[in-house]
Amino acid sequence: MHSPVTIESVRLRQVNLPPKVVRTDAIQSFVTQETILLTLRCSDGVEGTGYAYTIGTGGSSVLALLHDHLAPRLIGRNPLHIEAIWKDLFFHTHATAVGAITSLALACVDTALWDWRARHFVLPLWQLLGGAQVSVPVYTTEGGWLHLSAGELVEQTLAAQAQGFKGAKIKVGRPHVSEDVARLSAVRQAVGPAFEIMTDANQGFDRPQVLRRAAAFEGLDLAWLEEPLPAEDVSGHRQLRAQTSIPVAVGESMYHLSQFREYLEQGACSIVQPDVARIGGITPWIKVAHLAEGFDVPVCPHFLMELHVSLCAAVPNAAWVEYIPQLDDITTSRIKVEGGRAHAPDTPGLGIEWDWGVIASRQIADIRIAKP
Length: 372
Prior knowledge:
Elements: E1 7-17, E2 33-42, E3 47-54, H1 59-70, H2 82-92, H3 100-120, H4 125-128, E4 135-140, H5 150-162, E5 167-171, H6 177-191, E6 196-200, H7 207-217, E7 224-226, H8 234-243, E8 248-250, H9 257-265, E9 271-272, H10 282-294, H11 305-314, E10 321-323, E11 336-338, E12 341-343, H12 356-362, E13 363-370
Parallel strand pairs: 4-10, 5-6, 6-7, 7-8, 8-9
Antiparallel strand pairs: 1-2, 1-13, 2-3, 4-12, 11-12
Helix pairs in contact: 1-3, 2-3, 5-6, 6-7, 9-10
């Protein structure tokens, strides 16, 4: 009888990546992508690497939580026991859950475990998780930022349309509703009726303002209005959804399965947008997707296209992948987009090929944890 596989060592790295373009929205700027990488090596000789990110603050806190509390608990564990490990680590940090720092740290561990599992069984992640579809429509968010003029938005969106994208996201939340309407109207007129326009308020409105804006946006045939209110305001989203024909999308600022359950039970959203890093990894992400499927609600995840393309391909109700490159500087692989669709990778694991030489030259932290 073979001995079970065990985790022998864990390596933590942090690499800070500047965004390729200026990224602004209604409440913040995307300053730098603090990328936390976790690589575990197992007794079968196979490694798995997972990651999470911030947009400018908190990266060192995620790293410290992993180093001080989570990574040491992995040594000697069977990496096949992903559910048991996730639950153990979640309750070990229960005083800090549910929250962004804890969820991001859990995601580093969980995505590494799933990468190892897929590599161990020599399968692409999306096939290991279900293999529902080989490709998913893709829209772009690398443009549409709030500081851009209407003319710049039109130019960028037309370029995206010419490149084969099926949709583009436009940030909303300018000081007056008329500015948002003018920007969206200019884009709609330029791209025509068959191109999807997604909008994102980044939680920037209050209840009276969002009702006014949504009413003003009617007639522009928007694909959705994303994060119109603070994520904690479930009843406000329910009220909005009852008063507008525009689909309401939420999820990037939610950190646990139960938060999505509450939205779905109350009919407070039309689309869910779980972020695999912010919800704590692949294990809870898949649960959210299947929960949403039970409510006949599509999944359109936030960011992390390099990983989300595989998760979207794994489930039947994923409707869109969000195109916004994040890892180009530290990877040799690229997401494959053809005919306006993102195709799932066919290599074992997450489908992300890390450029370890570049990572070594740019990392600001490198920590190793192994058996005593």
